């Protein structure tokens, strides 16, 4: 999914200097962003207070939206570099096309994982004949320096492993949880899981104390370590946890995001992640001149133009403001 902000703020993210090395309960409030003409999202990362959770560096939550009489998601071709995109649905379908030739419909609880590597472009749209509701999350994972110039590619995993406990089903999206590992390719120590909780569930989920974590509430009424987390909000949990208490006041679903704190500082601008302003300038020139990022074939519409770069140089700001 694209960042469609026409005046995106560049930022330097990453580094361990602002990692909370102990358990915390920091509630992150989303900001509303318009995605195309018909989809509104709640952006949790980057946030005014926190920019990364492990290698997770971008989180949008959208829906549930009634799109029965609407076109639904319509995101024209746009570029990415230096990251992976994770498409995750609870309701609806998204048709993915990219410049490697991939064409895939992604359905609820199926993993659509795109590795941009050095350069890729893609589009995302609701199929012409689509379900009434659209509800999901779009996330980015920053690639470490050793892998950020890898060849681009796309993975689709319809069947994913699960961890279960009374009242809990955890579907592994990316990385490892409680000894179970997702088939999705990961380049850093990471965890991404979809947790379905039955009403009245009261469980403790084992965690890695060396990871930092956050929980994104998707639906229902959930208390995370005693804190009520409403759908569309995210609770940052810090590091140093060996388990996470979860209690459901109704049938509910949350996403657990975590990973080893990301050491490298990153420059994020629009849909690119680099290490310097010069890399971002080059990426913009390459996209606007039609080189390097390839062509998305089959999408009915023009690609997105890149926004103008800011007149001032980028200034490092770390993981938090």
From TrEMBL:
Q: Which parts of this chain are annotated as the region Disordered?
A: 298-321
Give the GO molecular function terms: metal ion binding
Q: Where do the Pirin C-terminal domain residues begin and end?
A: 193-292
The answer to whether the entry has keyword Metal-binding is yes
Q: Which cofactor does it need?
A: Fe cation
Tell me any Pfam family this protein matches: Pirin
Which residues lie in Pro residues bias regions?
304-314
Where the record annotates domain Pirin N-terminal, the positions are 41-141
Q: Which InterPro entries match?
A: Pirin (IPR012093), Pirin_C_dom (IPR008778), Pirin_N_dom (IPR003829), RmlC-like_jellyroll (IPR014710), RmlC_Cupin_sf (IPR011051)
Per the entry, the cofactor note is: Binds 1 Fe cation per subunit.
Keywords of this entry? Iron, Metal-binding
Sequence positions that bind Fe cation: 78, 80, 122, 124
Stretches that traverse the bilayer: none
Protein family per UniProt: Belongs to the pirin family.
- Matches recorded under PANTHER family: PIRIN (PTHR13903:SF8), PIRIN-RELATED (PTHR13903)
The protein's name is Pirin family protein
